[in-house]
Amino acid sequence: MDEMNFDGGEDDGPPGAPFWMTTFSDMVTLLLTFFVLIVSMSTVEIRKFQEALSFFQGRTSVLTHDAVIPPQERQLIADFRSRDQAERYEELLRYLQEAGLEDKVRIDLTDKGLHVTITDSVMFESGSAVLIDPSRTVLRKIQEVLGSDVESVIVEGHTDDRPIQTAQYPSNWELSSSRAASVVRFLIQNTDDIAPDRYISVGYGEFHPVDTNATLTGRARNRRVEILFSWEPWQNERTPYMPIRAETSR
């Protein structure tokens, strides 16, 4: 005769969760682990694909001396370089703060390089493309801190929309182009780390404003020089030039 409980019903076993709950919880845990593993592996594969793609860009042959470096060592080198670049970036920030130039010079550390924006009041006299002393000091400091990390340099000149018509500069095109060229010439003269063919000089006139030209403050922001000290070589024979703002995160 089956054993009966005190309530007169059949004994349903020891108290607690049913046995099937244990199996179900194990299955859910395994599924969660499986999906976490899939996500982590997909992230790694994307990074590996990006590393492989960057390795082939700009090369004429895969049989180069660095082709034998394992991916793990490549990542370690990249991480070390990033930390070093961050320290240099902080050094430049401290310099600008101590020099009282935070409102005149902006620097942004990006994956493309160090993006520097300098207002024209630090760079030039009105209507001139001759560098003044404050700009020379700033540019020397940036070159000193960055050192040999830089592989190429892109310089853009920008003006506000007020017309200029002089014998030397018939329009803002000529003025902005001359200002960019003056910066490039100064940078080349002050370092041998970068070959002259790794520089780009571009003048945009008033056609790429970052603020309104209806106010004095807005026009002052629009009169500027933007410089990208790039971590990568400039492949001018293969790569179409893109404006700095399209290449860097602001």
List the helices and strands and how they pair.
Elements: H1 19-56, H2 71-99, E1 105-109, E2 113-119, H3 120-123, H4 133-146, E3 152-158, H5 172-189, E4 199-203, H6 216-222, E5 224-230, H7 244-247
Parallel strand pairs: 3-4
Antiparallel strand pairs: 1-2, 2-5, 3-5
Helix pairs in contact: 2-4
Description:
By secondary structure, the protein is an alpha+beta fold. It has two domains: 20-56; 75-247, 60s Ribosomal Protein L30, Chain: A. The protein is 46% helix and 12% strand. It contains seven helices and five strands; from the N terminus they run ααββααβαβαβα. The chain has helices at residues 19-56, 71-99, 120-123, 133-146, 172-189, 216-222, 244-247; strands at residues 105-109, 113-119, 152-158, 199-203, 224-230. The protein has a five-stranded mixed β-sheet. β3, α5 (172-189) and β4 form a beta-alpha-beta unit. The longest helix is centred in the first third of the chain and has 38 residues, at 19-56.
Q: SS-based structural class?
A: alpha+beta
Number of strands: 5
What general outline do the C-alpha atoms trace? elongated
Largest sheet: 5 strands, mixed
Could you give the order of the helices and strands?
A: HHEEHHEHEHEH
Strand content: 5-15%
**DSSP summary: helix tally:** 7
The total number of structural domains is: 2
